[in-house]
Each structure stands twice: as C-alpha cells, then as structure tokens.
Write a structure and sequence with these properties.
single chain, mainly alpha, Serine Threonine Protein Phosphatase 5, Tetratricopeptide repeat, 2 domains, 80% helix, 0% strand, globular
Length: 218
C-alpha cells in the first residue's frame, strides 16, 4: 500500500474518532452543571450580601473547570455567564464591568453553539446584561438590544419564570408599568422547576417586589 493510501486511512480514522468522541452527552453535562445551579441559588438567596462576592468568585472558578471539562457544550458556558454576571452585581464598582464583559462573551459563545440551549437562557441572561450595564462610552449597555434579546428568550420559553421576570424588570426600567404587570404576573404563575426549589423561591420574592413596584406606578 502506498503512502497516499496510508494517509487516507489515517485521516479517516481521525475523523471517525472525532465523531465518536463528539460533544459530551446532555445528561453528562447536566451532571456537572446542576451543582453549579444549586450552589448559585444558595449564594444568591441564602448567603449574607457581604459574603456573596467571595462565594461567587469561588463558584466562577468551579464553573471554568466545568466549561473546560465539557468543551463544546453550551450549558456550562451559560452558567459560567450567569455566575460571572451575578458576581458582578455582588462586587459592584468598575471591577464589575470586566466581569460583565466576560459573562457576555460566555453567553455569546453558548449561542453560537446552540441558541436554544436551556430554553434560550443565554438570550435571557444576555438581554438582562444589556439593560443593566451602562451604555457607551462606559459599557456596552443598549436598551434596544436588550429588548430584542429578551423577546427572543420569550419566544423560546414563553412561560419561563426567568424569561418573564427579566422582561418584566426591563419594562419597569422603561417606565412601561402596565406591560410590566402583565409579564410579571405571568412570571409569578410559572410552574415550579424540579431541583430548583431554592432558586424558584428566591425568584418569586423578587417577582413580588417588582410587581408591587409596577402596580404602585399605575
């Protein structure tokens, strides 16, 4: 057999191995992501505010390991972005903007792989960054872009607690209180998520507070 045939066989074998290896299976990925979800909820909703930044920093390091372990999977990237952006909120100051930019990059990378992953959570989270981060020249904030992304999230997950909560919060920021009430009421009626009890309880409290704010402005 000539050298060309040997090389063809070798390239074929490499291609087959790549296909067989492929990205990790969803169930295997979620086995790694679920502890991040649960720990995030504990830090955000059950940890004193003055201790949250340090805890989110540790969790961000864990998330980076999960992203590296599950290369090519969008779910760890989404949760890396969520952790980074929540850490930014806990940290505050100019250092928070750097974390928001890192979170934005994680969400965008996840969307390139699969924009519908985790029911469009990358759209929800990236949209929330766009309306909460300052605009140019300080940051990348853009209210029009935020609404575009948040509506895409709702198209993928119309009954989701987070997709509705963040769009409702955005509408409050825009002084569109009547619309906000309808969206937040829909968020409050979202079905419980198995295994996400701590996150759901915390989010429902946030929804109630935002609803009270919006109703007071009507």
């Amino acid at each position: 057999m000539n050298d060309r045939s040997e090389m063809s066989r070798l390239y074929g074998l490499i291609g087959l191995l790549a296909v067989l290896a492929g990205p990790p299976a969803f169930a295997e990925v979620m086995d790694d992501v679920t502890p991040l979800q649960q720990r995030w909820a504990q830090v955000k909703y059950q940890t004193p505010e003055d201790k949250q930044a340090a805890e989110f920093e540790r969790l961000a390091q864990e998330a980076q390991g999960v992203v590296q372990k599950n290369a090519g999977a969008p779910e760890p990237l989404i949760w890396q972005g969520i952790i980074l952006s929540t850490w930014a909120g806990a940290k505050g100051g100019m250092g928070a903007l750097k974390l928001c930019k890192q979170a934005k990059a994680s969400f965008e990378e996840a969307m390139k792989i699969d924009p519908s992953a985790l029911q469009g959570s990358a759209y929800t989270s990236l949209g929330s960054l766009y309306y909460q981060v300052p605009g140019w020249p300080v940051g990348f904030g853009d209210d029009d872009k935020a609404e575009e992304l948040l509506k895409q999230a709702l198209a993928l997950n119309p009954d989701g607690i987070d997709s509705n909560y963040f769009y409702g919060d955005y509408l409050i920021e825009q002084d569109r209180y009547e619309e906000a009430v309808k969206v937040l009421e829909h968020a409050a009626a979202a079905a419980p998520r198995p295994g996400r009890e701590v996150a759901d309880e915390g989010r429902q409290k946030e929804i109630a507070a935002k609803l009270a704010l919006a109703r007071a402005e009507l």
